[in-house]
Each structure stands twice: as C-alpha cells, then as structure tokens.
Amino acid sequence: MRSLIDIPELSVEEIDQLLKTACDISENPEKYQNKLKNKKLATLFFEPSTRTRLSFEAAMLELGGSVIGFSSADSSSASKGESMADTAKVISCYADIAAIRHPKEGAPYVASINASIPVINAGDGGHCHPTQTLADLLTIYREKGRLSNLKVGFCGDLKYGRTVHSLLSALSRYENISIVLISPEELKLPGYVRREVLEAKNMDFVQTDSLEDSLNDLDILYMTRIQQERFADYEEYLRLKDSYVLDTKKLELAKSDLCILHPLPRVNEISVAVDKDPRACYFKQVMNGKLMRMALMLKLLTENRSDSADTCCEGETVEDLYCANPRCISTTEQELPQKFKLSDDKAVYRCIYCDHKATKKEEK
Ligand code: CP
C-alpha cells in the first residue's frame, strides 16, 4: 500500500511514467475504461473544492470504478469531534483508495499512517497539493514538449499558495529551470521553501513585485489567487487582493508562445478577456488534472509496493521543541505525538506533519 502526500515522494522516473500514462489515456480512453472495475474511491473533502473533488470522481468513474464520500466537514462525523486517525480507519473499511482535502496541514499524512488503503493528499492548508502539481506538469509537458530549459514566473500569493510550493519542488528536479517570484512583500515565498528548494538545488531565481517588468521573457506564467481564507487579518487581505491583474494589455509585453497557467479558482487576477488568448492554458490544465489523477490512481492501486506502510514511527520526539504552526493538524488532534525530523541540510528540525520549523519551548 502506498500513499501520495507530497511530490518528493515520486521519483522523476515515476513522474515521467505518469505523464506517459496520462497521454495514453487521453489518446486511447477505451483501453482504460474497466481498469479499476470494482474499486471504490472515497473523497473526503473537509474544505471546498470544485476541480479536485470532481476530477478525482470523474477519473475513478472513467476507469470503471465507483465513488463514495462527502464534500464538507459539516456532513461528516468530524463535526462531532471524530479524529482524522479514526476517520481514516473507518474509511479503510469501505473504500480501496481515498483522496483527502483538509484545512489543517498534515491531515492527509495523519490519515495515511492510520489507513490501510492508499491516501492521496488533495490539498492540506497552505502546505502542498501534489495532484495539482501533476496536472501542472502535464500541461507544461503537453504545451512545451519538455519540463527542462524553461523560465517560469509565479505571480500572486506565494506565501500561502500550496500549489506554488509543490510545483517549485517538482521543477527543482529538472534541468535549467529559471524562476521569477512575483509577489507583494507580505506574500513572498516562505523562507523555508526558498532555502530548501531553490537555494538547496542551486536554482536560478529572482524575487520582484512587478509583473509588467517580468513578462517579456517568460515561457510559463503561473498566476495564483490571493487566498482570503488563509488570512488572519481581513484588512490585510483587502489591501492585497488586487495586487496583480493579468489583462490583454499586459499580455502585449509577453512572448507569443507564453503558456499561462492558474490552478483555479480565479477571482479577478486574470481578466476574462484573456481566456480567448491562445496562450491561456488554465482550462486545459483542468482536463489534464483528471488525466493525471487517473494515471495516479491506476499506479497506486495496481503496483505492488508496501514502502509507506506504518510510517508512524517516522520522526523523533525532541524534549524542548514544539510545533507553533496554528494550521498544523497537531494543534487540533491532541493525541498526536509532537515529532520532528531534521531538514535535508540538517540545519533545523521540522514538524513531521506540516514541515514547519520547530519552536523552542522557552520561545513560547
Ligand atoms: N485547483 C484546485 O485545487 O481547485 P479546487 O479548489 O476547485 O479543487
């Protein structure tokens, strides 16, 4: 049994294989229509979603399987206080695979170590969203024919944008990727992502607050929504929400073969008039999301692997450390042991659930 919680769990070879499978599904859908006959997907969505939940469900149906699940925390026993661990054990009795979205960072990971079926992270707080990244990679691959030698701009909310963190992590494994990070000061990429992804992999990157100044030589522009639901201060959200609007006038500054991506939903950061521009690829990205989720479920349900079973013992208890991230699942599920692992550069301890840097107890 194998789960997918974050993109680094997939090797580059595995991602390449998923891309190939997704392309084959697109060209020969009839070959796949019974591949997951009698398999059941559970979609456990504790936070709103249109694309991710429906594309997972469409993906399983098109593979011949069936779907059970719920679309909000209110309609599950989580509203009565049931823990993520218990929910995962229960769903293992009913389904063969689960896709979980949760506002708490690390919730799908907690589910994966308690479930006896594969768990796919369908987005956890501001942490990561690996299947969106698979959709992004397939779109780039289909539009550009490659995943290397690209200049990629990320624009908008780079602080809370989990899709940005996951895609940067994926791109860091390909050759000659140059990154332009475009955001207001308040929504800059978190330091740990910058250090542990961009700097650790010696990636070429710049940070700026100007979209106009960055457009002219980008191959890919990844626009993002300023996410109201992640702000503690509503006034700050109002001040930042219209920081960037991509319109047809600004696009005159860009290359003719620019590929514009957006994980969606959009609010007003891409004007509707841009949709008619052949460079707008965000609705193709939605279709690619379904194809990659089909490829991923096929892989997780048909490959014989057991390498993520009982990862409960991962990490260590460190006497004077705790996780101070208010969005971490360990803050609401009191029975979870506070556990930490050393970062790749061995410089700091990170929470095993949400990846945030551990805090010393006297700093409380
Ligand atoms: N991109 C994405 O995750 O969209 P939903 O929130 O609609 O699932």
Output the keywords.
364 residues, alpha/beta, 5-stranded parallel sheet, 4-stranded parallel sheet, 10 helices, 30% helix, globular, binds phosphoric acid mono(formamide)ester
Mean pLDDT: 93
Largest sheet: 5 strands, parallel
| SS-based class | alpha/beta
Elements, N to C (H/E):
HEHEHEHEHEHEHEEHHEHEEEE
Query: Taking strands numbered 1, 2, ... along the chain, how are they ordered across the largest sheet?
Result: 7-6-5-8-9
Shape: globular
CA radius of gyration: 20 Å
Helix percentage range: 25-40%
Oligomer: single chain
Bound molecules: phosphoric acid mono(formamide)ester
Low-confidence stretches: 308-313
- How many β-strand stretches? 13
Distance between the termini: 39 Å
Strand content: 15-25%
Per DSSP, the total helix count is: 10
List the topology elements:
Elements: H1 12-27, E1 40-45, H2 51-62, E2 66-70, H3 84-91, E3 97-102, H4 107-114, E4 119-124, H5 130-144, E5 150-155, H6 162-171, E6 177-182, H7 191-199, E7 204-208, E8 220-223, H8 234-240, H9 248-251, E9 259-261, H10 282-302, E10 321-322, E11 340-342, E12 349-351, E13 359-360
Helix pairs in contact: 1-5, 1-10, 2-10, 3-4, 5-6, 5-10
The structure holds phosphoric acid mono(formamide)ester (CP).
Phosphoric acid mono(formamide)ester (CP) binds at residues 49-52, 123, 132, 263-265.
Would you write up a description of this structure?
It is built from ten helices and 13 strands. The chain has 364 residues and is an alpha/beta fold. Strands 7-6-5-8-9 form a five-stranded parallel beta sheet, covered by helices on one side. The longest helix has 21 residues, at 282-302. The two termini are 39 Å apart. The model is unreliable at 308-313 (pLDDT under 50). Phosphoric acid mono(formamide)ester binds at residues 49-52, 123, 132, 263-265.
